[in-house]
Write a structure and sequence with these properties.
Elements lengths: L5 E6 L9 E7 L2 E7 L12 H4 L1 H5 L9 E3 L7 E3 L2 H19 L2 E8 L6 H4 L1 H7 L4 E5 L5 H11 L15 E5 L3 H4 L4 H9 L3 E5 L12 E3 L6 H14 L5 H7 E2 L1 H10 L4 H8 L3 H13 L3 E5 L9 H14 L9 E3 L22 E4 L3 H6 L8 E5 L3 H4 L3 H10 L2 E6 L4 H4 L3 E4 L8 E4 L5 E5 L12 H15 L12 H8 L2 H7 L12 E2 L18 E2 L3 H5 L18 E4 L16 H4 L4 E4 L1 H6 L7 E6 L2 E9 L7 E3 L21 H4 L9 E7 L12
Parallel strand pairs: 6-7, 6-15, 7-14, 8-9, 8-12, 9-10, 11-21, 12-13, 15-16, 16-17, 22-26, 23-25
Antiparallel strand pairs: 1-2, 2-3, 4-5, 4-17, 18-19, 19-20, 22-27, 23-26, 24-25, 24-27
Bound molecules: ligand MGD (2 copies), iron/sulfur cluster and molybdenum atom.
Molybdenum atom binds next to loops.
Length: 688
């Protein structure tokens, strides 16, 4: 190693299971290399291709360098302005709206997961709370339905330690694709397989994870609940369940057995509905009986359907029946809520303010429904809603209603293109942060390794400046503590409890390397956080919330349009973030993947253009024929010039509101028809 480099610790802040720790090699204020941090016990010195490409991200010619103003909005006529001018325009607008309406309710923001470091995720919440009552988005795109399902069953979402998956003898992946979305987990899966474990992948798509499986089950989207209930019935009938666990730790076993007995969960019905063979069903039930411990993992993609909460409860019931909870190598994996142990000072700044709440999953429509006062100002950061939201038609209307749109990003996204002001965001190498994974149990510090790129600033820094500007124009308008630096905020997160849990004395200790939470195996005490203290197959809380008390199978949505479109994640990029990547990756979102038989039926060839359409509109894609996609299903990746989201109905999951205010987003309940031909002009998207 060349010792003239200064080495810093950073953390990849993308919305990704792994939250990889990295080392950045800097000389004369320039980044020369990034590498994985070998001291991180989960990511162990490795990054994914996106991580290794960070030099290209930081120094991309497409990166925004200065504040920009566009007039008129959407014209593409941009002028470079100073930070002072930008902040003044924003502050004056905020003050004018406050005067006009007598409150700040006409102000809102939309903050996403572009950067999930603590100081990024919650900076907007803190700033807007500092203004008092405003219009506040709540909800969660990724995982709301599943979080509720876990809460009904266990009383709380508590992830087993993913490093323990290496000790499983059976791994069931339900709509999770770690070879793409959680690549660091693959080494634990591979280790388990090396030690004799079986890997089962249940997914409508033959994914890169499925390619590694011992048993791949190609299931029809939205029908997993039926499969899980059928398996549960079979295990109970054959007395292949864990009697001790059921008697001592499950609430509602009898009611569940009665329900299973009184409905048709026969292998033949199962096969007709789910599309899987009876043989595969029997093989899976045999594996569940014979191979223990079993780890089950439900991916977030799994729950983007209208019936997904119920399906997740059915899968969890299967884990409980087989006693696969609270033991090394066993467990129901979903989500680690590690942040909840922290004070989250930014998120909780002035959090008692009674805001006007809107649903982030239905953002534009929710905002449009508000009057008295209507929303006129939006601050968008770490988000690209004009690519990633459903309900894009409502967005078009909303843009017309808004008087000032400010977007903070590193790149000129689709959303930025439709903003009045675009402010350049710093990359994570240019500022401090603290990163807590939603998957593993490691805590890592992100150091400031580089000077600001041109005039880019961190989200926190921008709010500090805006607060000063506002208060200068109107004393005491915001009580955001502008005097606190990023380091001050970090210090306030390290409570006595956190010091003990992670074995540190201060945040600065993390400069020596990431630390793991000291923990027991989740649920090893079998003291569940439900009302009964047991794992609740029968949930009175669910019934109180107008849901079935038992996990029930509800058929998935159907449509007059013959194809269901899945828009899953892609290994090479995160959501719409491709502006810094080579063209070949960028172009992935222009494809539609179609099964060979369907392509023949429609007389389609590779690379040919087709139009996908439904009642929400139409768009053009290029055909790619592949048998990794089953008949009746299409795959279109997210982002790109013509985002698939413009065809998505406002469609929601059955759960989510218990823990995240609103039900989750059923992005994969999208149905379309297809016809040959079409060019971009005919299928022009949105605001051309
Ligand atoms: N490379 C990369 N990694 C990412 C992201 C990214 O954009 N790129 N995004 C991150 C974010 S924000 C999230 S939320 C996660 C998502 O992480 P994952 O849940 O792993 O990803 P998805 O691709 O959404 O869905 C996983 C699989 O679910 C399958 N699936 C869909 N419907 C069903 C169904 O009804 N039943 C079953 N059994 N399977 C189904 C899909 O075919 C897909 O293969 O990934 C994170 N990691
Ligand atoms: N069709 C379809 N739509 C989906 C999904 C799907 O599976 N299918 N998945 C949904 C899910 S799970 C998610 S999480 C959402 C993601 O939705 P978004 O969060 O809107 O998606 P991204 O494209 O990742 O946009 C994040 C933006 O943040 C910017 N950014 C990165 N770092 C920073 C920073 O430090 N500061 C600021 N200000 N900006 C930064 C990036 O450049 C990028 O433009 O998409 C949802 N939409
Ligand atoms: S995108 Fe995910 S896997 Fe890749 S470096 Fe970042 S955290 Fe790690
Ligand atoms: Mo997500």
């Amino acid at each position: 190693m060349n010792t003239t480099y200064e080495v810093f610790r950073n953390v990849c802040p993308r919305n990704c299971y792994n939250s990889c720790a990295m080392l950045s090699y800097v000389r004369d204020g320039k980044l020369y290399k990034v590498a994985g941090d070998p001291q991180h016990g989960f990511t162990r010195g490795k990054l994914c291709s996106k991580g290794y490409a960070y030099l290209k991200y930081v120094y991309s010619p497409n990166r925004l360098r200065f504040p920009l103003r566009q007039y008129p909005r959407g014209s593409g006529k941009w002028e470079k302005i100073s930070w002072n001018e930008a902040l003044e325009q924003i502050a004056e607008k905020i003050l004018e709206l406050n005067k006009r309406y007598g409150s700040n309710l006409s102000l809102t923001y939309n903050n996403g997961s572009g950067n999930i470091g603590l100081l990024h995720q919650y900076a907007s919440a803190a700033f807007f709370n500092s203004l008092g009552q405003h219009t506040k988005p709540v909800g969660n795109f990724c995982l709301a339905a599943g979080q509720d399902a876990f809460t009904y069953d266990f009383g709380q979402t508590l992830n087993p330690d993913p490093e323990q998956m290496g000790y499983a003898k059976l791994i069931l992946l339900w709509g999770a694709n770690p070879a793409c979305t959680a690549i660091q987990q693959m080494k634990y899966i591979n280790a388990a397989r090396k030690a004799g474990a079986k890997l089962v992948v249940i997914d409508p798509l033959f994914t890169s994870t499925a390619a590694k499986a011992d048993l791949y089950i190609q299931i029809r989207p939205g029908t997993d609940g039926l499969l899980a209930l059928g398996l549960a019935k079979k295990l109970i009938e054959n007395e292949d369940y864990d009697r001790e666990f059921v008697e001592n730790h499950i609430y509602g076993f009898e009611a569940f057995s009665r329900y299973l007995n009184n409905s048709d969960f026969s292998p033949s019905r199962l096969s007709t509905v789910t599309g899987i063979t009876e043989e595969a069903f029997y093989e899976l039930s045999q594996l569940l009986k014979e191979y223990k411990p079993c780890s089950s993992w439900i991916g977030y993609g799994f729950q983007r359907h209208s019936n997904s909460g119920q399906s997740i409860r059915a899968i969890n019931a299967l884990m409980a029946l087989t006693g696969n909870i609270g033991k090394s190598g066993a467990g129901a994996y979903y989500l680690h809520l590690g942040q909840e142990a922290f004070p989250l000072k930014l998120a909780n700044h002035n959090s008692s303010v009674q805001n006007r709440l809107v649903n982030i999953n239905d953002f534009a429509s929710s905002i449009l429904s508000l009057q008295d006062p209507p929303v006129k100002f939006i601050w968008i950061s770490g988000r690209n809603p004009l690519s990633q939201d459903q309900g894009l038609t409502a967005w078009r209307e909303l843009l017309n209603q808004l008087e000032l749109i400010v977007t903070v990003d590193l790149f000129m996204t689709k959303t930025a293109e439709h903003s009045d002001l675009v402010l350049p965001a710093a990359s994570h190498f240019e500022e401090y942060d603290l990163n807590i994974s939603y998957w593993h149990y490691w805590l890592a510090l992100n150091e400031k390794a580089l000077p600001a790129y041109y005039e880019a600033k961190s989200d926190l820094e921008i709010f500090r400046l805006l607060t000063r500007k506002l208060n200068k124009l109107s004393a005491g308008f915001s009580d955001f503590p502008a005097e606190l630096s990023a380091e001050d905020w970090l210090a306030s997160e390290i409570t006595t409890q956190i010091k003990v849990s992670y074995g540190i004395n201060s945040w600065q200790d993390l400069k020596n390397g990431p630390k793991k939470l000291q923990m027991e195996i989740p649920w090893s005490s079998c003291k569940f956080r439900t009302a009964s203290g047991k794992f609740e197959i029968y949930s009175k809380l669910a019934r109180k919330n107008n849901l079935p008390a038992l996990p029930k199978y509800h058929p998935p949505q159907s449509s007059k349009h013959p194809f269901q479109v899945l828009s899953p994640q892609k290994n090479e990029f995160i959501h719409s973030q491709t502006k810094w990547l080579p063209r070949i990756i960028h172009d992935q979102a222009s494809l539609v993947l179609i099964n060979t038989n369907d392509a023949q039926t429609h007389n389609l060839r590779d690379d040919e253009s087709v139009i996908l359409y439904n009642d929400n509109g139409s768009l053009s894609k290029k055909v790619q024929i592949t048998d990794s996609v089953p008949p009746g299903v299409l795959v279109v990746f997210q982002g790109g010039q013509e985002p698939i989201n413009s065809l998505i109905n406002e469609s929601f999951c059955d759960m989510g509101k218990l823990k995240n205010h609103y039900n989750g987003n059923a992005f994969y309940d999208l149905f379309v028809s297809l016809k040959k031909g079409g060019d971009s002009a005919e299928a022009a998207w949105f605001f051309v």
